[in-house]
Design goal:
The complex is a heterodimer of chains A (113) and B (113). Chain A has strands at residues 4-7, 10-13, 19-25, 31-37, 44-50, 53-56, 64-67, 73-78, 87-94, 103-104, 108-112. With 113 residues, chain A is mainly β. In chain A, a hairpin with an 8-residue loop joins strand 9 (87-94) and strand 10. Chain B is globular and about 45 Å long. Chain B has 113 residues and is mainly beta. In chain B, the strands form 3 sheets. In chain B, strands 2, 5, 6, 10, 11 and 12 form a 6-stranded mixed sheet that branches. Classes of the chains: A mainly beta (113), B mainly beta (113). Chains A and B meet through strand 5, strand 9 and strand 10 of A and strand 5 and strand 6 of B.
Chain lengths: 113, 113
């Protein structure tokens, strides 16, 4: 089945140690998004790509970066994770047309110790 | 900016009860409206959507009607099941541009047998 796959499901990293989360999609969608969802809160957009065009939300910390080497893959890099970065990180895709719904991956839950 | 307001939870119901979760929005443009559901430890799943006034989105017994005059998109189900227990997010996106999803804070639904 076509889908959005996030690896790993659970990631534990040490305070200050760089970590990379990955997302792949078989849907061939143009648009990919990274959301951060802290406990009991709504998801918050960090970045999105329309094809190779990168868009950073104004309030996304500099500690967070992203790469999209091709249509299928997108990575979220956290250069120096702090305790406040512990959250569920959700990847999503969308075809690109008006009114299209997003398809979300199952998320990666990041714990910082 | 655009925003979504949902009723606070948790909403606690007995099986087969009628469900309403209120959602209102503020948008400068003419948005698409969505309901997403999140089961424990999982990502978000699109439940239903509507892209223009008076459209009714429906799926798995859930319904919501796009009401432009009241800027609302209330979620309803005639008879809930225990398996409907989850967090429900109302969201909107512009129909042009990058179509960023803006979420409400989510409403937890608990259904008891």
């Amino acid at each position: 089945d076509a889908m959005v796959i996030q690896n790993p499901r659970y990631q534990v990293t040490q305070f200050g140690k760089p970590v990379t989360l990955s997302c792949s999609q078989t849907l061939n969608h143009n648009v990919m998004y990274w959301y951060q969802q802290k406990s009991s809160q709504a998801p918050k957009l960090l970045f999105h790509y329309y094809d190779k065009d990168f868009n950073n939300e104004a309030d996304t910390p500099d500690n967070f970066q992203s790469r999209r080497p091709n249509t299928s893959f997108c990575f979220l890099d956290i250069r120096s994770p702090g305790l406040g970065d512990a959250a569920m990180y959700l990847c999503a895709t969308r075809p690109g047309g008006a009114g299209d719904g997003y398809t979300f991956g199952s998320g990666t839950r990041l714990t910082v110790v | 900016g655009d925003s979504v307001t949902q009723m606070e939870g948790p909403v606690t119901l007995s099986e087969e009860a009628f469900l309403t979760i209120n959602c209102t929005y503020t948008a400068t443009g003419y948005p698409s409206l969505f309901w997403y559901v999140q089961y424990p430890g999982e990502g978000l799943q699109l439940l239903l959507k509507a892209t223009k006034a008076d459209d009714k989105g429906s799926n798995k017994g859930f319904e919501a009607t796009y009401r432009k005059e009241t800027t609302s998109f209330h979620l309803e189900k005639g008879s809930v099941q225990v398996s409907d227990s989850a967090v429900y997010f109302c969201a909107l996106s512009d129909q042009v541009g990058f179509q960023k999803l803006v979420f409400g804070t989510g409403t937890r639904l608990l259904v008891s047998p």
